[in-house]
Amino acid sequence: MKETRVASRYARSLIQLARSESKMEEVRSDMLKVDEVVGANRDLEIMLNSPVIKADKKAKVLDKLFGDMVSSITHRFMQILVNKGREHLIHEIAEEVEKQYLESQGIVKVEVVSSIPLDEAQRTAVLQTLNSLDANKVELEEKVDPELIGGFVITVGDKQLDHSVAARLRDFRSQFQKNHYVPGF
Q1: pLDDT digits (tens, 9 = 90+) for 75-133
Q2: What are φ and ψ of residue 113, in 5° steps?
Q3: Whether 34 contacts 90, CB under 8 Å
Q4: I need a surface site. Which of 4, 11, 115, 185 has the fewest CB within 10 A?
């Protein structure tokens, strides 16, 4: 919990700095790239989390990796993280930057998981329904999970609407396991 608050504060500071220099989109993109690279490289993640490796070595590695790839704001920010001993929070900070950016832009991320890919009519219907419920812009992320058998699962923030055949079968199975019948007829 405490680490989340720290990550949130660092993200807020980075966003404020990026806004003041009119580089919000660039910094958001940088943080997404950094998070992707760190998440895809287990050795880099271990190095950033290691208390044995000195801060100057971590700073050099990050400089070599991201020096030309990210903006000067993001580069300086990562150097500050290393100097403050917070480099292990890069993933959490990147998540918070994305969350706070979307919130500031009035964008709501919605995940739709279905058993088959949505066609254009279904996608439009989902977007119209979600837009009518909320005044914010909706950013739709689609996933396919054949194990749902049919139907869909919509996730908005911490709320989830599960209208899948798999969920209905689980409900039926649990009802039958309660054994509400009277034996002996």
Answers
A1: 999 999 999 999 999 999 999 999 999 988 888 888 999 989 999 998 988 888 877 76
A2: -110, 125
A3: yes
A4: 185
The answer to whether residues 10 and 58 touch, using CB atoms and an 8 Å cutoff, is no
Tokens 């066609």 locate to: 119
Q: For the structural domain made of 107-177, what CATH number should be given?
A: 3.40.30
Terminus-to-terminus CA distance in the chain, angstroms? 56
Q: What is the largest CA-CA distance in the chain?
A: 79
Sheet containing 151-156: order of strands: 137-144, 107-114, 151-156, 159-164
Closest-CA residue to 94 (of 40, 136, 165, 146): 40
Domain boundaries, the chain: 2-103, 107-177
Give the helix ranges, DSSP H, for 50-164. 55-66, 72-83, 90-105, 120-133
159-185 CB burial, b ≥16 within 10 A, e <16: eeebebebeeeeeeeeeeeeeeeeeee
Q: Which CATH architecture describes the domain 2-103?
A: Orthogonal Bundle (1.10)
